[in-house]
Amino acid sequence: MSESSNYPGGWTLRFPRVEKIREDKPFDDCCTLSELQGLRSRKGVVQKLTKRHATAEDIWEVPEKKRKERHTTPAIKVDDCYLGINDSDVVRVSRVFMGKEFCVMNGERMQGEERGMTKGEIERLLMEHFGKIVQNPGKETFCVVAGDSQGIRVRNVVEGRLHDVVRVAWVTRATREENLGGIVEFFPWEMIGMTKKTLERLKERFDDYYDDYFEEADEERVRRSVERVSSLKDDDEVALTRRGVGRLEREMFGGTSPFGIFRGLVGVFVDERDVRTFEFRFMGGEVRGEVDEAVTDVFVGEGEVGIIELYGRINERGRADVRIVRSQWIEESFREGRILDRKGYTLT
User: Fold this and answer.
1) Roughly how many angstroms between the first and final C-alpha of the chain, as a whole number?
2) Which residues of 92-131 are buried (b: 16+ CB within 10 A; e: fewer)?
3) What is the pLDDT of residues 77-125, one digit of tens each?
4) Among 106, 234, 320, 340, fewest CB within 10 Å belongs to which?
5) Whose CA is closest to 194, among 170, 166, 171?
6) Which long-range contacts (CB under 8 A, 24 or more apart) does 180-185 make?
């Protein structure tokens, strides 16, 4: 035997030859590495490792070594639903989600007879388009997908506002063949929760009723807007005052609106049957039954008017600044689409 660093034992046989086959000894009685190292360390004559010759009884009745019982903790098995999909089992369809990380919280609930997608099916769909799946959202997570928005984990992520939480509807829309050219933008009705950045981006395109500022509405979008209006709580509804409507019209038209030329005027019609009342209301005017502190004009028809009696009614309310105008002024202003000068229509 020669020393050699090329072998784990540190020794090797030099020019080995088979001298004899010992059929009288069992295979597990061969020299072990520890015994070889013991032979190497000895300075005297090497003794035989076996003191007697083996017999047939030694070969066929080799006593089994007793194994010491060890108290081990049983292995904890993780449910398959938390392990995710094996990447090698997925057939790639496109690269639309390449470089994007997703966390699927849960699957969809059954809706009647229609079965929703399971968590595994959603993950597989994302992976088919090169999406990376993680079981917990992190800094690199593009978005969180949830089929059931009522789960405690989903609510915690939504309240944290660190990740966009989308419905499965966005995943199915984003993986349609016509949308595989790039990642599609979120729609507000596809969101369960969103970051501040996403909220500001969607507000630039959609109003509170999901109406798009830039694209024409189709039947589906109108239906969603109607559903949105009916689902809003009373606290979310905003009632505009007449002053508020006037302010919006000035912002929109840069002055008086052509659709609200009488906005801000409050009138009393001496003849309640005067049809010009409708034109006055239609163009933003407000009609009162009696003169009060808000009235700006009193309108009379084409017939005879008791001017003294009329002034008496006005003076009873302590109003000397109210104008008495023939309602013909309303009709001609309506026709022109602008407020005409009251001269020629005012009674004195």
Assistant:
1) 138
2) eeeebbeebbbbbbbbbeeeeeeeebebebbbbbbbbbbb
3) 655 555 567 777 889 999 999 999 999 999 998 766 678 899 999 999 9
4) 234
5) 166
6) 180/94, 180/96, 180/129, 181/96, 182/96, 183/96, 183/97, 183/100
